[in-house]
């Protein structure tokens, strides 16, 4: 392990090897661009690049950007530069075809996203599916009726969506206003004098400040992101929630929505369809596997690592609709929630079971998530959701 | 100067830097890039900037971040009172001509840390402390300044840097920083030190502590960090603890349980930690450390 990798003699040189190393890091999930490659080469000119210990320290400082990457870096460095003296041919990188904006749980980094046997029956097989992939997949047979092909249009009627839309609009409004701490020039009213503008205007009147202009704290819109659990245990409630999410999407152009069961699916674009029923139809195509098991931890983790980086910030409220029954170890939920909270968002968890008498969040997953949740509420019906309004006002 | 020399130089100023950190600082200086330091509170992130300023014999300019920090507090602001007085004085003299050019001149500009940092004769160390407390808008200002090293004042024009500051940003994970900011910076994670490093730090900062007691203190704190605590004591706490023990006249940790208990105020900073780490636990840890 401590022996330095040998490169093929026809290899074009150190720059190409560095490019290969960058590709290796990118392949392992570090987000690095051409700028970093250039900087890394520059950095190596300032140290003894032939000394592995120094090169390692220098590249770590340049190529990592957060504590996690820094912790993984040593292994990645060893994997490329210290592979025990084996010859590496073709160190130059190959171009990957993955778009950075589409995150599929089938290519999730933990490599176990498809362990539940939830293959994608609706998508054309492109030769990279389960059957072709080698790994430790398990084939699971169940005797229960499969609801994998269930059409959401059977569950949700247009009236439901219309009603849910009204509720969603009210909830959206309740969450809307969050006052910024920053002040900006006010048109009329404000709480602080805007000296800069007063001064400018006073010049016209010989230094006499005739008009007192103000600065105010503007209201900043809050963005709503909803994550809806559609696993088997949630089947009864999913109907209400999906109608609600559909309603939310139709009344709020900035909202964002996802479904998860054993996989995470972004349904924002599908739900923006102007025809409510067609939207539900498109969603049920995407929600293939609806009513199966749930992998909340893995789904939330994937969300926190990928979509959340783009869509979730300090002015976002994340709405999770789930009963917290997870087939994964529940530590995963806690870790994923913590990661999500680090984006600075507020998290509301709506749990249908909380409406039951004597309910206690004893399910491991729910208990692990609770410390990271800002508001934990029951919600079985649209009426329950509507009743959330005052709670959300206070948040 | 390579990173080993820098490490030695920093040590001369009382800062024991790990190889990682020394290399990151060395590259930040060599490449002229900002350096982002992350780590728990009290592991010496801010101290890096102070010591580096001393080692480079230059000024330290510090900007403490908070939510809602804006351009008026971080870059520049006009001195409104002075402007107002000047206009009135000019009006009294009847010399209103050219008032605008006069009051929007350098004399009336109050420079805040970011502007001050690019207008020094000698490259200062600019410490942007706890950047994760500021909001995204401020990150955007900062990005602009870190890439161009210039500031535009609408009334005055663009002020370009006379010297590029050595920029150190610190964060302790209140929120995720944007990828754009992380990309512009070199990165080092400052963790809790191991036993040998902490002993070196203690010897460098509190030379009056005897070798035997120093060993005990470091052993004690290292063991205490393994306990399930809300707030794990950092190096700053270790140094306070050592100072407290010196002040209380303790030469051996096991000698006086009551006094040791009193000195724990420097290490345990939350109520639940005080409650969970009982006198018995303290005695057990002290016994192990001795």
UniProtKB/TrEMBL annotation, chain A:
Name recorded for this polypeptide: VWFA domain-containing protein
Which domain of life does this protein belong to?
Answer: Bacteria
- The ranges of region (Disordered) come to 92-139
Q: Name one Pfam family in it.
A: VWA_CoxE
Under InterPro entries, the record lists: UCP010256 (IPR011195), Uncharacterised_CoxE (IPR008912), vWFA_dom_sf (IPR036465)
From TrEMBL, chain B:
Q: What is the lineage of its organism?
A: Bacteria, Pseudomonadati, Pseudomonadota, Alphaproteobacteria, Rhodobacterales
UniProt source species: Pseudoprimorskyibacter insulae
- CDD domains recorded: AAA
- Which residues belong to any copy of the AAA+ ATPase domain? 31-191
The record's annotation in InterPro entries points to: AAA+_ATPase, ATPase_dyneun-rel_AAA, CbbQ/NirQ/NorQ/GpvN, P-loop_NTPase
What Pfam families would the database entry show? AAA_5 (PF07728)
* Gene Ontology terms for molecular function: ATP binding; ATP hydrolysis activity
| Superkingdom, natural source | Bacteria
* Protein name per Swiss-Prot or TrEMBL: AAA+ ATPase domain-containing protein
């Amino acid at each position: 392990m401590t022996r330095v990798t040998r490169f093929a003699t026809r290899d074009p040189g150190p720059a190409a090897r560095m490019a290969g190393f960058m590709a290796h890091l990118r392949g392992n999930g570090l987000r690095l661009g051409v700028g970093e490659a250039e900087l890394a080469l520059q950095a190596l000119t300032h140290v003894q690049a032939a000394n592995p210990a120094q090169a390692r320290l220098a590249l770590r400082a340049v190529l990592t950007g957060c504590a996690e990457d820094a912790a993984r870096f040593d292994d990645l460095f060893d994997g490329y530069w210290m592979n025990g003296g084996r010859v590496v041919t073709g160190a130059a990188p190959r171009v990957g075809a993955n778009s950075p904006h589409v995150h599929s749980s089938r290519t999730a980094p933990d490599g176990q996203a498809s362990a539940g046997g939830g293959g994608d029956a609706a998508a054309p097989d492109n030769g990279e599916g389960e059957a072709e992939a080698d790994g430790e997949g398990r084939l699971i047979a169940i005797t229960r009726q499969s609801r994998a092909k269930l059409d959401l249009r059977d569950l949700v009627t247009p009236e439901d969506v219309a009603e849910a839309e009204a509720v969603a609009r009210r909830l959206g409004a309740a969450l809307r206003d969050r006052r910024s701490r920053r002040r900006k020039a006010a048109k009329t009213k404000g709480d602080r004098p805007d000296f800069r503008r007063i001064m400018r205007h006073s010049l016209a009147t010989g230094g006499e400040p005739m008009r007192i202009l103000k600065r105010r704290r503007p209201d900043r819109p809050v963005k709503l992101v909803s994550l809806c659990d559609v696993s088997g245990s949630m089947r009864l409630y999913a109907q209400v929630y999906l109608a609600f999410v559909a309603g939310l999407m139709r009344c709020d152009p900035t909202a964002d929505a996802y479904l998860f069961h054993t996989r995470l699916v972004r349904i924002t674009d599908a739900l923006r369809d102007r025809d409510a029923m067609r939207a539900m139809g498109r969603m049920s195509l995407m929600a293939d596997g609806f009513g199966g098991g749930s992998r909340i931890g893995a789904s939330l983790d994937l969300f926190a690592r990928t979509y959340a980086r783009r869509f979730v910030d300090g002015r976002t409220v994340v709405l999770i609709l789930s009963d917290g029954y997870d087939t994964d170890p529940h530590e995963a939920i806690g870790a994923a929630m913590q990661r999500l909270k680090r984006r600075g968002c507020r998290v509301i968890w709506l749990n249908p079971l909380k409406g039951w008498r004597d309910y206690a969040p004893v399910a491991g997953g729910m208990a692990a998530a609770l410390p990271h949740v800002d508001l934990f509420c029951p919600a079985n019906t649209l009426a329950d959701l509507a009743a959330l309004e005052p709670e959300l006002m206070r948040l | 100067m390579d990173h080993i020399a820098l490490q030695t130089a920093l040590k001369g100023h009382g800062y024991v830097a790990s190889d990682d950190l020394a290399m990151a600082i060395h590259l930040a200086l060599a490449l002229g890039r900002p350096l982002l330091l992350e780590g728990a509170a009290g592991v010496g992130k801010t101290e890096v900037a102070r010591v580096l300023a001393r080692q480079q014999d230059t000024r330290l300019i510090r900007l403490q971040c908070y939510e809602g920090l804006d351009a008026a507090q971080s870059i520049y602001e006009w001195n409104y009172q002075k402007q107002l007085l000047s206009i009135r004085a000019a009006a009294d003299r009847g010399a209103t001509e050219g008032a605008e050019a006069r009051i929007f001149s350098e004399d009336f500009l109050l420079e805040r840390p970011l502007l001050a940092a690019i207008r020094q004769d000698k490259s200062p160390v600019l410490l942007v402390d706890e950047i994760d407390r500021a909001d995204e808008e401020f990150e955007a200002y900062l990005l602009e300044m870190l890439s161009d090293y210039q500031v535009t004042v609408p009334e005055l024009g663009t002020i370009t840097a006379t010297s590029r500051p050595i920029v150190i940003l610190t964060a302790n994970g209140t929120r995720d920083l944007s990828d754009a900011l992380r990309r512009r910076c070199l990165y080092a994670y400052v963790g809790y030190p191991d036993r040998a490093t902490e002993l070196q730090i203690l010897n460098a900062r509190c030379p009056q502590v005897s070798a035997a007691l120093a060993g005990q203190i470091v052993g004690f704190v290292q063991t205490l960090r393994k306990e399930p605590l809300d707030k794990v004591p950092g190096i700053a706490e270790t140094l306070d603890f050592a100072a407290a023990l010196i002040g209380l006249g303790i030469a051996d940790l096991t000698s006086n349980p009551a006094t040791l208990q009193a000195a724990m105020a420097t290490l345990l900073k939350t109520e639940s930690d005080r409650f969970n780490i009982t006198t018995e636990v303290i005695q057990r840890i002290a016994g192990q450390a001795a």
